[in-house]
């Protein structure tokens, strides 16, 4: 008898998404639920685990189970934003809202402090990446310094996926990939926790056992079954960070394959043959046993376009259509998209956005296109740091819709992009990982074939080469001003508290 369908649920920055997928890769049902992200201070981004993660998960699961009818699911996998820091007590109860990944830049002083204590080169050699706002370790130290009462009660370290797995199965487990982003707490080459450095930044915390995202972590308990409607005993995988589940969904598995995810933040993942630390980027473990990857992430991309939409009104389709009619170069506008600091390859939480060349003759179409072009220049900068395009470049995420943004990126980078059939695929990738976990051997190419190839236009690419040169010069030319303004923003926030 053929196994039942597979469930995949992903907890993103601004929404949760879920899919019900047949064992042949056919999507049987979809569900989504928006949720808020708290920003209590400039540079702070938080989620409440109960009202955002768990409520979103249970809502989506019940909707998908209704669509499943009498078909009993065969497996479940979850993914989520990461790395995040959710401190919990010995019973796994959250002690405060979760501190999010690299968009949360509160731990700048702790990054500098730990780098000086441990040595940047030693950290890179052992952990694969220099400390940045993406790392979880400095945020643990921030917690001890600024919220000592919470830190004193902390006994567990949870992320979005591991929190859900704990609620569903009772298991305290984290996947190797997520752990490898917890610098300086994980030894990349040893493939295990760096116990001495973990104790230094998170004293008193019992670290979760490690497993791979394609492995079963446990099964749904009777209590979780009542809360979610899931069947008791349903296998649940270990879970992972959303971007890596997305890469799995797009078949990015061979060394050299690169995924470019268009979302609230722009994210790139390249598979590597082994550990490959690169200054300014993140070397991590992958989702399949023994695998490795190199990653880069911009702090803002789709978040800027969403901000512009809120300022201007209208909907995304209208703004994208207007931007598509503006010539390359946005009629003389150049945007530095560091609206929440930057992660890679410029690890600067105090960087700020810049719009150069603005005149009263520019309108919302030019500003919107300048935002798309600015993020495209950031993609080119990150690809250059990775060593340039190599293997396949696969485009996924909500920003692939309409093809204007993907066209700009191909023109700026002079690179083909393969767009698969399923482009919003973290939840779809979860379902794929669930299939592996329960012993199936799905054909990834058959699950998610390439639907389109976006190719660069040489004429526009020539124009963008000139703009990219100026883009690279804009940050060093404005960094002192940006840092001054970032400090003023902090002072203003302090006064308003």
What order do the helices and strands come in, and which of them pair?
Elements: E1 6-11, E2 15-21, E3 27-34, E4 46-47, H1 49-68, E5 75-80, E6 86-88, E7 98-99, H2 108-118, H3 120-127, H4 137-146, H5 148-153, E8 156-158, H6 160-169, E9 173-175, H7 176-180, E10 186-187, E11 192-193, H8 195-201, E12 209-211, E13 216-219, H9 222-228, E14 235-237, E15 240-241, H10 242-249, E16 258-262, E17 266-272, E18 282-285, E19 292-297, H11 302-312, H12 316-324, E20 334-336, E21 354-356, H13 364-386, E22 393-396, H14 404-413, E23 417-420, H15 426-437, H16 444-447, E24 450-454, H17 458-496
Structure description:
With 497 residues, the chain is α+β, with helices and mostly antiparallel strands. Strands 3-2-1-5-15 form a five-stranded mixed β-sheet. A five-stranded mixed β-sheet has the order 18-19-17-16-22. A two-stranded antiparallel sheet has the order 4-7. Strand 18 and strand 19 form a beta hairpin. The protein is globular, with a radius of gyration of 22 Å. The termini are far apart.
